[in-house]
Request: fold
Amino acid sequence: MPRASGLGRDVSAQNVRLKRPTPGPEEAENIAAEITRSDGLLRPGDIVVTPLGFLLFKGVAADGYINEFKPVPNPLNQSRDKKY
Reply:
Protein backbone atom coordinates (compact mmCIF):
# COMPACT_ATOMS: atom_id res chain seq x y z
CA MET A 1 0.00 0.00 0.00
CA PRO A 2 1.22 3.55 -0.66
CA ARG A 3 2.48 5.43 2.32
CA ALA A 4 2.35 9.17 2.86
CA SER A 5 5.90 10.46 2.74
CA GLY A 6 7.28 11.37 6.13
CA LEU A 7 4.06 10.58 8.01
CA GLY A 8 4.64 6.87 8.51
CA ARG A 9 1.02 5.83 7.96
CA ASP A 10 -0.99 4.41 5.11
CA VAL A 11 -2.75 6.83 2.81
CA SER A 12 -5.59 4.31 2.54
CA ALA A 13 -6.46 4.88 6.20
CA GLN A 14 -7.49 8.43 5.29
CA ASN A 15 -9.87 7.24 2.57
CA VAL A 16 -12.35 5.53 4.89
CA ARG A 17 -15.92 6.59 4.13
CA LEU A 18 -18.25 7.45 6.96
CA LYS A 19 -21.27 5.20 6.98
CA ARG A 20 -24.49 6.97 7.84
CA PRO A 21 -27.86 5.31 8.16
CA THR A 22 -30.14 5.62 5.16
CA PRO A 23 -32.55 8.54 5.69
CA GLY A 24 -36.20 7.76 6.19
CA PRO A 25 -38.75 8.82 3.55
CA GLU A 26 -39.56 12.15 5.22
CA GLU A 27 -35.90 13.06 5.74
CA ALA A 28 -35.07 12.08 2.14
CA GLU A 29 -37.92 14.29 0.91
CA ASN A 30 -36.61 17.24 2.95
CA ILE A 31 -33.06 16.72 1.66
CA ALA A 32 -34.32 16.63 -1.94
CA ALA A 33 -36.38 19.79 -1.38
CA GLU A 34 -33.38 21.63 0.08
CA ILE A 35 -31.20 20.59 -2.86
CA THR A 36 -33.90 21.83 -5.23
CA ARG A 37 -34.30 25.17 -3.46
CA SER A 38 -30.55 25.81 -3.60
CA ASP A 39 -30.09 24.69 -7.24
CA GLY A 40 -27.80 27.09 -9.08
CA LEU A 41 -29.41 26.27 -12.44
CA LEU A 42 -32.81 27.76 -11.54
CA ARG A 43 -33.98 30.69 -13.66
CA PRO A 44 -36.64 33.26 -12.73
CA GLY A 45 -40.05 31.79 -13.51
CA ASP A 46 -39.06 28.16 -12.84
CA ILE A 47 -41.52 26.25 -10.65
CA VAL A 48 -40.34 23.62 -8.19
CA VAL A 49 -42.41 21.21 -6.11
CA THR A 50 -41.49 20.75 -2.46
CA PRO A 51 -43.26 19.46 0.66
CA LEU A 52 -44.32 23.10 1.10
CA GLY A 53 -46.14 22.98 -2.26
CA PHE A 54 -45.44 24.62 -5.60
CA LEU A 55 -42.88 27.44 -5.46
CA LEU A 56 -42.06 29.97 -8.19
CA PHE A 57 -38.39 30.94 -8.34
CA LYS A 58 -38.20 34.75 -8.24
CA GLY A 59 -34.42 35.05 -8.40
CA VAL A 60 -31.41 35.42 -6.18
CA ALA A 61 -31.77 37.73 -3.20
CA ALA A 62 -29.78 40.95 -2.86
CA ASP A 63 -27.16 39.10 -0.81
CA GLY A 64 -26.33 37.09 -3.94
CA TYR A 65 -26.60 33.82 -2.08
CA ILE A 66 -30.20 33.04 -1.07
CA ASN A 67 -32.77 31.95 -3.65
CA GLU A 68 -36.15 33.66 -3.31
CA PHE A 69 -39.43 31.84 -3.98
CA LYS A 70 -43.10 32.73 -4.06
CA PRO A 71 -45.83 30.17 -3.30
CA VAL A 72 -47.94 29.18 -6.31
CA PRO A 73 -51.39 27.58 -6.04
CA ASN A 74 -51.53 23.95 -7.14
CA PRO A 75 -52.88 24.04 -10.73
CA LEU A 76 -54.60 20.69 -10.27
CA ASN A 77 -56.66 21.97 -7.35
CA GLN A 78 -57.76 25.04 -9.34
CA SER A 79 -58.98 22.97 -12.29
CA ARG A 80 -61.24 20.91 -10.01
CA ASP A 81 -63.06 24.04 -8.90
CA LYS A 82 -63.98 25.06 -12.45
CA LYS A 83 -67.17 23.75 -14.02
CA TYR A 84 -67.11 23.14 -17.75
